[in-house]
Each structure stands twice: as C-alpha cells, then as structure tokens.
Automatic annotation (TrEMBL):
Organism: Laccaria amethystina LaAM-08-1
Signal among keywords: yes
UniProtKB keywords: Signal
Signal peptide: 1-18
Keyword check for Signal: yes
Protein name stated in the entry: Uncharacterized protein
Length: 92
C-alpha cells in the first residue's frame, strides 16, 4: 500500500503555488493603483517670464523695417484684376 502523505503534500504544494500567483497579481494591481500619482508631470518652479509675455502681439516691434509698399502694390493689382473680371463678365 502506498502512503498518502506524499499525495497530500503534493496537493498542498500545488494549492500554495496557485495562492502565491493570485497574491502576487493582487499585490501588483494594488501597488499600481496606489502609485498613480507617481506618473504625474511635475512642473518646476523657476524665474522665467510669465506666459502672457510670449502671447502679446508685437508684430510691429519685430517687423518695423518692413514697408507697406508691397501691400499697396498687391492691393492695386487685386483691384485691377477685379475690374478686368467684372468688365469681362459684363461683356458676355
């Protein structure tokens, strides 16, 4: 007759192994839930200028060397093209 204690020991070992897997999964899940703030972005505090300084429209300050003659020529060309198109449409 075969002793039953090795069989009982094997069953206990298998149950302990299954419980250990469940425990490690739960522990990992619990750790990931509790450490959610770990992956948040942390902004540094420094003495840089505020954001509104960068958002102010200073086109005139940066481009004072440009003249408006190109705009006037473009406007004149657009007016001539529009008049020509209207004249052409009226003739048809």
């Amino acid at each position: 007759m075969i002793p039953t204690w090795p069989c009982a020991l094997f069953i206990l070992w298998r149950r302990a192994d299954a419980l250990q897997r469940v425990y490690s999964l739960l522990a990992h899940h619990l750790k990931s839930i509790t450490n959610q703030n770990e992956h948040q972005i942390r902004l540094s505090k420094d003495d840089n200028p505020p954001a509104h300084k960068f958002l102010v429209d200073d086109y005139g300050d940066d481009n004072g060397h440009l003249n408006n003659s190109d705009d006037e020529l473009l406007l004149k060309h657009v007016k001539q093209a529009t008049q020509a198109l209207r004249h052409r449409t009226n003739d048809e």
